[in-house]
Amino acid sequence: MQHAGIFHLGLSCWALVSFGPQVCKSYGSLTFFLIYILGGVSGNIASFLHTPNPTVGGTGPVFAIIGAWLIYQIQNRDVIANDDSENLFKKAIIITILGFILCNLGPVDEWSHSGATFTGMVYGFLTSSTLQLDSTSPQTGEEGLKLVKKYGGSFKSLIIFVISIVVLSSLLLFMDPPLNALASADEVAVVALEYMSIFY
């Protein structure tokens, strides 16, 4: 099994606690949820198409969240506090490096990380809100922060999510997974059926 291990679980939890609240605040709770689900789907599809072993674990969604966070930072780099961004950017680098090390030391699937990160960045780009600096207020003389686009919109997020799922699913029609992946999938299905037969 790929993506297993206590260190991998700890890394996933740390990344989710670090970036989850920021992405939820930036994109809204619905879009955050869709980013998480889309990261899981894209990570598993990327893994299935490139690796012969079955995959477990939830780092794909976490890397999708990091990808969406990165896009939000790039799109709003002129108006976001540098200290907070630099701190999280350092965490993103550390998480990526640790993920790469775990990929080479244990059963961790880098295809899941890469596929989910790319999907999170694309989806984040299409649904991200944009901040801009307002003109100086004549009453206070202070520069204000105005939200130009609150969120991408729930309906827009859902539409883009559905289109993304269709596009990702279509990859399974046009790309062939490794032959061992099909054999492993069959083995997992047999084990699952045997396990279910015990209770029914």
TrEMBL record:
Localization: Membrane
Gene Ontology molecular function: serine-type endopeptidase activity
Membrane topology per record: Multi-pass membrane protein
Keywords (A to Z) from UniProt: Membrane, Transmembrane, Transmembrane helix
Keyword set includes Transmembrane: yes
TM region positions: 6-23, 30-49, 55-72, 154-175
Organism this protein belongs to: Pisum sativum (Garden pea)
The UniProt record lists the keyword Acyltransferase: no
Pfam families, per the entry: Rhomboid
Protein name: Peptidase S54 rhomboid domain-containing protein
Annotated InterPro entries: Peptidase_S54_rhomboid_dom, Rhomboid-like_sf, Rhomboid_protease_S54
Family per similarity comment: Belongs to the peptidase S54 family.
